[in-house]
Amino acid sequence: MFKNIGIIGAGAMGSAIAEVFAYNEFNVVLKDVNMDFATRGLKHIEKIVDDYNSYYERLPEREVSRIERMGLKLSLEQKEKINNYFSHKIDKNDLEKRIKITDKYEDLSKCDLVIEAAFEKQEIKNGIFKEISGYLSDDAIMATNTSSLSVTEMASYYKNPKKVILMHFFNPPYTLPLVEIAPSTQGSDDAAKQAYDLLKGMKNHRNNMQPVMTRDKTGFIVNRILLQVINEAIKVYDENIATKEDIDTAMKYGAGFPMGPFELADYVGLDIVYDVLKTFKDVYGDRFNLSETLTNLIRAGYMGRKSGRGFYDYTK
Ligand SMILES: NC(=O)c1ccc[n+]([C@@H]2O[C@H](COP(=O)([O-])OP(=O)(O)OC[C@H]3O[C@@H](n4cnc5c(N)ncnc54)[C@H](O)[C@@H]3O)[C@@H](O)[C@H]2O)c1
Fold this sequence. Notes:
This protein is an alpha/beta fold. It folds into 2 domains: 4-47 and 93-213, NAD(P)-binding Rossmann-like Domain (Rossmann fold, 3-Layer(aba) Sandwich); 222-306, N-(1-d-carboxylethyl)-l-norvaline Dehydrogenase, domain 2. Helix content is 48%, strand content 12%. It is built from 12 helices and 8 strands. The protein has helices at residues 12-23, 35-69, 76-85, 92-97, 122-132, 151-156, 189-200, 222-238, 244-255, 261-268, 270-284, 292-299, and strands at residues 4-8, 27-31, 99-102, 113-116, 141-144, 164-169, 178-183, 210-213. The chain has an 8-stranded mixed beta sheet, with helices on both faces. Helix 1 (12-23) crosses helix 2 (35-69), helix 2 (35-69) packs antiparallel against helix 3 and helix 8 crosses helix 10 (261-268). The longest helix has 35 residues, at 35-69. Bound molecules: nicotinamide-adenine-dinucleotide (NAD). Residues 8-14, 31-33, 37, 117-120, 124, 128, 145-147, 169-171, 268-269, 272 line the site of nicotinamide-adenine-dinucleotide. Nicotinamide-adenine-dinucleotide is lined by residues 8-14, 31-33, 37, 117-120, 124, 128, 145-147, 169-171, 268-269, 272. NAD(+) binds at residues 9-14, 32, 120, 125, 147, 171, 306. This is 3-hydroxyacyl-CoA dehydrogenase. GO terms for molecular function: NAD+ binding; oxidoreductase activity, acting on the CH-OH group of donors, NAD or NADP as acceptor. Residues 219-314 form the 3-hydroxyacyl-CoA dehydrogenase C-terminal domain. Pfam families: 3HCDH, 3HCDH_N.
């Protein structure tokens, strides 16, 4: 039943979510506050596709040398088979044809599902839910990709709160398949179930998408647990127990984390980490106390990878 998907906010997440829907052959309308930001989102999508294609271009050669390093000699025919097996490519033109960028709400009016992925500020999100009310059909589902804010409060600004849900994707959604889904307090389980079923039929670049059901409680499942780890890592660093490099190494090699907590915080964006921790502190109290180390990085404009500097320096 879903055909046209709208995304509000063409930043790191919004544009990557748009790519996942276009990859699954949905029509996508990607909206930002102006055309420059929307175009930047489209450029991000182009980069995602280029990186995917160049990875798969190199993969057969890597696979052949991996096998030959084990002492096996492959025939030309076998190499050809490996080549064909790994010949995944995304047709960039075809994918881009399914994505329309815009700075106007009216272009979202034919969407069956709209996912808001703007800044992590409750007032901004509430404002978007209020403004879009005038443009969507009564049947459309209105979702938010918030990491920590109240879906229920956003729903109270929307004309049909029953249709408001959480659809929380993880970064980057083209490789991480998890999506947390929750109805707002006023919402119907039916809208959440529709989103669940939709995602169950979708895939990203590596896996089938994996939705899980949760409730509209601050931080939901993953971030409530993960942000505690990041915050505790900053405290361990502040107490001079170890360098940030050694803390990252310890968590990767001792706890099986794919990225260390500082690498992850830089990847997510320190502004997002900061905003989410502030929300958690308001709701859960002192166990989410903010370190001045993080506050100072924000004051300095060091937002992580996206700004070239965060806990680590990416400019070198
Ligand atoms: N970065 C992550 O790892 C991550 C992971 C999961 C969820 N999220 C959530 O996704 C949302 C977006 O995060 P991001 O990292 O993509 O942020 P971002 O700063 O990269 O992008 C936000 C985009 O929203 C646009 N925007 C702001 N107000 C708008 C409005 N009124 N209408 C349309 N567009 C508007 C901005 O111009 C910007 O392009 C946040 O709620 C965040 O908590 C982020």
